[in-house]
Each structure stands twice: as C-alpha cells, then as structure tokens.
Amino acid sequence: MSRNDTANSRRSSGWLLSSAVIAVVAAQPAWAQEQSADAGQGGITDIVVTARKQSESLQEVPMSISAVSGKDLESAGYTELNDVARLSGNVFFEAADRSKPQIYIRGVGTRSYDAGSDSSVGIFVDGVYLGRFGAMDMDLMDVERVELLRGPQGSLYGRNTIGGAISVVTRDPSSSLKGKLSGELGTSDVGGDWLYSLGASVSGPIAGDDVRGSLSVARRYRAGYQPVSIANIRGGSEDAWSGRGKLLFNLGDATLRLAADYSHLDGPPLVLVPNQLGGAGDNPGALTPGFVTPAEPADPYRPAMDVQGQGIVKETYGGSAQLNVPFGAIELTSITALRKLKLTERDDLDGTTLPFQVYLANEDGKQFSQELRLNYQSDTLKVLLGAYYSREDVTRTETIDFGPASLLSALVAPAPLRWDFDVNLQAKSYALFGQIQWEPVEKLSLTLGGRYSWDEKAVAFNTKTTIPIVISNYSTALSRKWHSFDPSVSLSYKFTDDVMGYVSYTSGFKSGAFQFIAVSPAIAQQVAEPESVDSFEAGMRTTLLDRHLRLNAAVFSMDYKNLQQLRLIPIGGGVSRILIGNAGSSRIRGFEMEGRAVFNSNWSLDFSYGYLDAKFKDYVFNATLDFSGNRMQRAPEHTLSLGLNFEASTGLGDLSTRIGYSYRSKIYFEADNNLLDPESSEGGLGLWDASVNLKNGNWTLGIWARNLTDERYRRQVLNSTGNAQRGIWAEPRTFGARVS
User: Fold this and answer.
1) Contact 713, 685 (CB under 8 A)
2) Are strands 65-69 and 357-377 parallel, antiparallel or unpaired?
C-alpha cells in the first residue's frame, strides 16, 4: 500500500544488501578450505527426482527444475505447500484463504478459483492431478520431496499445464518397522494467537517384503492472528484433521501402490479489511440514507465486522492405484484416481460493521482420472508414450445476501434481496502425449516430445434473484470443445561429467473458461478463449569445485497469448460484475539461478534468484483503456532466496540450524497497474525465517520462527473500483517448538 510501500521497500532493500554481505563474508574463508576438501566429506550429494517419469539425478534434467525434501521443509518450520515459494525463484504462491490459491510461475497463473476455469500451474500428488482449486493449498504430511518444474509441461504429465507443475511425492512404506510421534506448540506476535499440532505415523512390512504399509494422521489447530470484534472470529485460525495411508504390493516383478487420504479443515475465515484509499473510496457501495461507513481500522490485524458464523469448512479425500508392470525393456504404468471436494463458506463481503453484504459459497466436486504410460529404455534411447482421461463434475453456488445498509436492498424493502448464482459443470479431458530421448553420439542428447489435447466442457447456469434488480432470473446451458497439438524439442550436451548445457522449445495450452457469476444470459455466453504459450529456454546445470558447488542457471523467453483475465467491473449501486475475458498477448523474459554451496563439513548455503520482465504486449481493455506495456499481475521483477545452514555433532547430539531469507520486489494485483484501482500493489518484501534442531538418538528437539522481523503485508487485494478496497493480510511473526 502507498502508506507502507516506501518503508517496506527500504527495509527489504536493506535486508537484501545485508544478506548478500553476510553470504559473501561467510563464503570467503570457507572457499579457501574447500578447494582441497575431499568431495566425500561434506560434498554435495545427488538429488534423485522423477520429474521425467524416471529416476535420475537432478543435474541430468535439461529443464528448469527445483527439488526440496520433505524433511528439510519440516525442519525449517514450513507446513503448507505455498511455502515452496520462499525457496524458489520466479514463483508466487499466496492464498486469500485455503480455497482460493493464487499460483504463478514465471508470471503465468490464474486469479480464478471457480468451476469453469483451469489452473495454469498443475499440482500433482504421486502423479495424480488435483483439479479443484480448493484442494491445491495442502498440508505437507508424509512428504518425501516436492519438485517444481517451470514452463509448460505437456509431454510428461497426464494433465496439461501451461505455466508449470508442482509435483509432491509422498513416502513409500518402509521395509522395516518404523514409527514416529511428533508434537508442536507455537504462538505469534498477536495476543491470543497460539497453535499446536500432533502427528503420528507407522510404516513397515505387513507380509514380509511382499506387502508393506504406512499410515499417518495429523491434527493442526491455530487460534488465529487476526481477532475480529463483534463477529467474534479470528483470521488465520484453523482446526484441521488429516490422514494418509499407503499399501505397497510386490507382485513378482510388478508393483501395486494403493493410496488414500482424507482431510477436514475448519477455517481460516476470509477476513477482508477495508482500505478507504485516503477517503476516496470510503463506502463498500451505495448506502441507504442514515447509514454511515465506519472508519478504516487503525490496525488491520484488529478489524471489526458484524456477520456472525463466518468461516470455511473444507473436506477433501480420495484414493489412487498405481500399477507398474515390466515387460523386458518396456514398463507399463497405470494410475487410476478418484478425488472429492466439499466446501461451504460464509464471509462478510463488505468487511465492515455495516449490515451490507454477506457472501456464501457451496461447492461439491468429483474428479476421476486414468493415466496409462509405456516406458522403454536402452543405452541410447528412452521412449515414453502416454494416454490420459479425466472427468470432473462440479456443482458450485455463489450467493450474495444484501442487508438493510445496501441501497439496493432498501429499494425493495421489506422483501429480502438475495442473488444466487448456480453453476453445474462437467469437464472432460483427453490426451495423447509422449517423448523420445535419443543419444546419437556420446554426451549429446536430443529429446522430441508432443501432446494432443481434447477438452470438453458443458455448463448449466441457474441464476436466481428474489427481486430482479441489476440481474435477472434465467437458466441457460452451453458447451464448448477445444483441441491443441503442442510440440517440444530439447537438445542437451554434457561438456564434462559435471557440466551440462541445453536449449529447448516448448509450447503450452490451457482450455477456455466460463463465467461463474453471470448476471445475465448475455454475460453467461461470453466464454474466454484458450491460452497458448511458446517458450524458449537455454540453461546450464553444473557441479563445480570438487562437488562443493551446484550451480544451475536458465534464461527464457515466452510469447503468451489470450491470457484469461478476471476483473471486477462496477455496474452501479455498489455492485461489481465479475468478468473473465482475454488479454491479447504478453511477452515474458527472464533469468533464473539456483544451487547449493558446501563450504566445509559444517557450513552450506542454498540460494536461488529469479529475474522476470513480464509485460502485456497487447491488452486493450476497452475503447478508452489500454493496458499494453503494463506489468503483469503477481510477477515480481526480482525474487531471491538464501538459506545458510550449519551442522555439527555436539555432546548433546547432532545440531542443525538454518537461517533463511526470501525477497520479492513490488507486485501489482491488477493489470491496470494502479491506474483505475489505486494502491493495488504491494512493495518489496523481505522475510527472515530460522530453525534450530537437535537430534539425540531417536529424539529430535527443534525451534523455528517465520517472519522474524514481523513484516505486515497483504497477501491479496479485492478491488471494486470507486469503492473501498478489501485486503487479506498475511501471517505476522510466528514461532514455535517441536519434539519428535
């Protein structure tokens, strides 16, 4: 916001400079020592990933990919999937609440969260695509590692993703009996906020090596860091249960994995804090005479609202079966999955003590998917062929109740004014995909890939109103079909065993999008066109200095067409129309660098940096507004992550510590870049995290802290041009202790 942008930017710049100086100073003596260090003592170890549907070293993958272990995430105090953004360059992952994630990789993402839109970034858990937005912001329970792939991913994954993929790999059952108990207790800088979590897991053989199993359960609770008076709720609160089970069958040469998971989440409520823009937008909308807008809260972490019973209750569950059958040099993989999502939500839409607007949502979604893959490998040739089918059935209702403070409601009083927007969607996706890796000569590898996608969507709108003002009662149905062929090509060369370079071209596709709050049949008929992208990339993957430095870098350029943009457009009476349309084209260029430096057997540094030049090349919003040349939303120019690690054996046990710093430069929440919606931006932000863990035998004690300098910032902004904004504020300084 303008009142704190300058201060935030100044603090963040200072921290950025300080952290860089610390890293350089720490590195100076260490590098001198490691020149003669034995690579087997404190050197960098290989990270094995399965991003290309085969187990291979991270350094062998000719694409921009990051990987972090679940153990490291837990040790650092990171518990949610969106925390991976703190560790990766050119990644933005925030959420208004646990049902509306905003995920952008290299500036490519979607602001939508409705049934008629697809995510630009795919979330996969053990190869299963999570189709519903409400299921994407998940807890990290029993996770082996998280792999993050940047750019379009079509020739490797069953479901197409235009911006990138986040692949979560959970732990397989162990070959010996193991168990774990853990407990955590914490608090934040806001009075009355405290949290705890409990976890238990068991893993091991059930029938020797032929059948192994694992079961994990977890309980998480947080009182909430944003107390809201009158409404008697707390933003940031949650009460969650979750469980995950897996069975692994060895059927001769074949293997069968059966997995199931369940989670029930109550909270956090969506707390919208008004920003009256210096008095220029002091009302949530047109008020009934006699009502006066309350003053903007002096402290956004202590607002006031009138609506009782606010919150979100979300239930997600599902199961999958993965069968791997080898036939000589060929292996068949089948992944069958069923997912379910149910959620209910109730919010104070105006974010004030006025009886103005109440928002309610109900969603019931079901997803079935089937993926088949054939893999062939020889010394010089690797072939992957795949087929994919998925079907989603989603019913979602958005409801707005108008209270007596709304002028619209007063015009029809004493009758209540209520709008219901029902959307029933059936979406089917079919695909054939594959790639061939050929090594014509030693050290040179050529990869050719392709994907043909067929997407079908049918939607039925049923819009109802008690009094036909601004919107009309109607029912209508429509359907669309899209298809696309997306090729890819990559050429890589190994200059040495530890240095590999590559160049690649990849195209991507995302199907069209329906409206989800359509105030009229004419609006319902406006279907956003599919998106497409052509991505060019060149990079290096290196392991240097006697395996004490892993340094990977990539430059890229993307031509991005028909971006699906969601905007709130005022239509009078304090009411805004939500419309999903297309921007003409955009140009995205950038650079990424990441890696790990091992100074000696005690000290190491993890780092990543991303530069992003993401602008609308052609975006004529209407006859009087041209956003061409503006910076794209949620696409910070600079992102940085540093993690300084120290490990040592002491008389009390094995000590490991980490201090981490993540930075992102200014972001815009809207495509107008503050022209129409002033203060729809957040200045530069730097966050410090720290953790200390001590392991003695089977026991581990740890302490952690997030946002050490207590930065107060907005995760999201809800705009209604001409009226007050509403912001969603992020977690303050939070710290805790863990024993396991």
Assistant:
1) yes
2) unpaired
Q: What is the pLDDT of residue 621?
A: 84
Beta strands at 121-125 and 164-170: parallel, antiparallel or unpaired: parallel
Q: Tokens 């299921």, residue?
A: 135
Domain ranges of the chain: 2-739
CA 15, CA 658: separation in Å to the nearest integer? Answer: 17
Single-letter residue type at 524: A
Residues 205 and 173: their CA atoms lie apart, in Å, by: 8
The stretches in the chain having pLDDT less than 50 are: 1-41
Residue 497: beta bridge partners? none
Over residues 149-161, the pLDDT tens digits come to 999 987 887 788 8
Task: Give residue 19's pLDDT.
Answer: 38
* Pairing state between β 311-327 and 238-251: unpaired
Instruction: Please give the distance of CA 320 from its chain centroid, rounded to a whole number.
Output: 22
Q: At CA 330, angle to CA 326 and CA 334, rounded to 5?
A: 60
Taking every pair of Cα atoms in the chain, the longest distance, rounded to a whole number of angstroms, is 84
Phi-psi region at 199: left, alpha or beta (left = phi > 0; alpha = psi -120 to 50)? beta
Which residue has tokens 């019913």?
395
Among the listed residues 568, 498, 526, 573, the one whose alpha carbon sits nearest the alpha carbon of residue 721: 568
Residue-wise pLDDT for 643-682, tens only, equals: 999 999 999 999 999 999 999 999 999 899 998 888 999 9
Nearest to 47 by CA among 170, 145, 178: 145
Q: Give the separation between CA 46 and CA 58, rounded to whole angstroms.
A: 7
Place of tokens 């500036």: 107
Residue from 360, 358, 350 nearest 396 by CA: 360
Q: Where are the beta strands (DSSP E) in 175-310?
A: 178-188, 194-207, 211-222, 226-230, 233-235, 238-251, 254-266, 273-275, 304-305
Q: Coil, strand, or helix at residue 286?
A: coil
The token duo for 81 is 């999937």
Q: 125: closest CA among 339, 323, 342? A: 339
User: Is there a cis peptide before residue 101, judged by omega within 30 degrees of 0?
Assistant: no
Measured between alpha carbons, how far is 740 from 694 in angstroms, rounded to an integer?
A: 11
What's the burial of 402, exposed, middle or buried (CB within 10 Å: 0-12/13-18/19+)? buried
Say what the pTM is.
0.89
Q: Do 695 and 739 meet the contact criterion of CB atoms below 8 Å apart? A: no
CB 729 within 8 A of CB 300: yes
* Cβ-contact 243, 220 below 8 angstroms: no
- Residue 718 has a pLDDT of 84
- Check: CB of residue 271 under 8 Å from CB of residue 318: no
Length of the chain: 740
- Token pair in block for residue 23: 């890293």
Element (H, E) at 552: strand 549-572
- CA atoms of 261 and 244, how far apart (whole Å): 4
User: CA 364 to CA 394: how far, in whole Å?
Assistant: 6
**Contact at 8 Å (CB) between 403 and 357?**
yes
Nearest alpha-carbon partner for 276 in 684, 659, 678: 678
Task: Note the Cα 128 to chain centre separation in Å.
Answer: 16
Residue 195 CB: number of other CB atoms within 10 A? 21
Helices (H), 375-448: 407-412
**Strand, coil or helix: 635:** coil
Residues 461, 172: Cα–Cα separation, whole Å: 43
Name the superfamily (CATH) of residues 2-739.
Answer: TonB-dependent receptor, beta-barrel domain (2.40.170.20)
Q: Transcribe 48-114 into DSSP letters.
A: EE-TTSS-EEGGG--S-EEEEEHHHHHHTT--BGGGGGGGSTTEEEEESSTT-EEEEETTEE----S
Q: Is the CB of residue 530 less than 8 Å from the CB of residue 507?
A: no
